[in-house]
Amino acid sequence: MLQTLAGVNLAGHSVQGGMALPPPHGHEGADGDGRKQDIGDILHQIMTITDQSLDEAQAKLVSSN
C-alpha cells in the first residue's frame, strides 16, 4: 500500500483527502475525539476501496462467463 499526503493509493484505487496521523500522545483529552474521527475516516476509506474492488471483481467474473 502506498500512502501520500494527498491521498491513499491501493491497487490502482485512489482516495483523495488522505491525512497524516498526528503523533501519539501520552494522554487522552479533547484530542482523543479528533483521533477517533481520523480513524473513522480511514476505516471509511478502506471500506470504500474494498467495495470498489469487490464490484470490479464481480464485473470481471460476469464478463468472463
Automatic annotation (TrEMBL):
It is found in: Nucleus. GO terms for cellular component: nucleus. It comes from the Eukaryota. InterPro entries: PBX_PBC_dom (IPR005542). Residues 34-65 form the PBC domain. One of its GO terms (molecular function) is DNA-binding transcription factor activity. Residues 25-37 have a biased composition (Basic and acidic residues). This is PBC domain-containing protein. It comes from Falco tinnunculus (Common kestrel). Residues 14-37 are annotated as: Disordered.
